[in-house]
Design brief:
Length: 209
């Protein structure tokens, strides 16, 4: 059992078989994916809004939300790889479908930004990007949740591994849930900063024309 002092409180973290001390990565790895899903959901909404009224503001917000979601998704992959190193003995394994499908999902959104760079016309770029983004985001539930559940896995919940409910013991929830809220708040703040930067940049470009 590990003892952690948080905000003046003494928290006893229970011993979890297999994961051992690496269980504390729960406070980083899982919130990254939650935050990514929130960011991609916002990007999905902004893309639909753009297709409805074709205001470039919505395209800018969709791009920003996708960018932030991709950053947190990559962080989720990195923390997952680190966790795999200490629990499975390898940084990456092709025997784990969730890892590979998560990487595929991130590549879909890397392709989104490559697609955007292929068009000079901002309206055409925004329309095609919005359509691509909508279809790309709808693949996330299948790649990250539905398909992996149908295949043998090393992830929590599979045979021989503690389920996610075991990882969120009352002692861990005291840190886990604030971590989720904190990372989501960080993502929203990042989106706000990027949106304001892009808006100022756009105004400066208009003034120069």
């Amino acid at each position: 059992m590990t003892v952690v002092i948080t905000a003046g409180f003494l928290i006893r973290i229970p011993h979890i078989p297999i994961l051992e001390e690496s269980a504390r990565n729960l406070f980083l790895h899982v919130p990254m994916w939650f935050t990514m899903m929130i960011a991609f959901t916002m990007a999905f909404y902004f893309s639909i809004r753009f297709l409805n009224d074709e205001q470039m503001e919505w395209d800018r917000k969709a791009e920003t939300a996708t960018m932030v979601g991709l950053v947190f998704g990559i962080c989720g992959l990195l923390t997952g790889s680190l966790w795999a190193r200490f629990t499975w003995g390898t940084w990456w394994t092709f025997a784990e479908p969730r890892m590979n499908l998560s990487a595929l999902a991130m590549l879909i959104f890397v392709a989104y930004f490559i697609l955007r760079s292929a068009f000079n016309d901002p309206v055409k770029r925004a329309k095609i990007s919005a359509v691509y983004n909508i279809f790309g985001i709808t693949t996330i539930p299948f790649l990250l949740y539905i398909i992996p559940r149908q295949l043998p896995s090393l992830h929590p919940g599979a045979e021989g591994n503690p389920a996610f409910s075991d990882l969120t013991a009352p002692e861990l929830r005291i840190i886990f849930y604030p971590a989720v809220i904190g990372f989501i708040g960080l993502a929203v703040w990042m989106m706000d900063i990027l949106n304001r930067y892009k808006a100022v940049k756009y105004r400066l470009e208009i003034e120069q024309i």
